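Assess this one:
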Amino acid sequence: MKFQVVIEEDPEDGGYIVHCPALKGCWSQGDTIDEALDNIKEAIFGYLKTLNERAMHGLKSPDKAMIREVAVI
C-alpha cells in the first residue's frame, strides 16, 4: 500500500514532523527526512495493524475510518 505523507520542518525542536492525512492521528518525526519517512512507515504499519485487529474482534473502527491507496511523494 502507498500513502501520501506531509513532511514539515520542526522550527521548535529541529528535525522533521510527518503525518499521513489519510490516517487520522497518524504522526511521527525524525532528525532527518529519511528518518522521519522510516518512522512514519512504522506508524502507518502499526495503525493499519490496529485497525485490522479491531475488525477481527468485531470492534467498530473509530470515526468511520477509511483506508485508501495513494502514492508517497
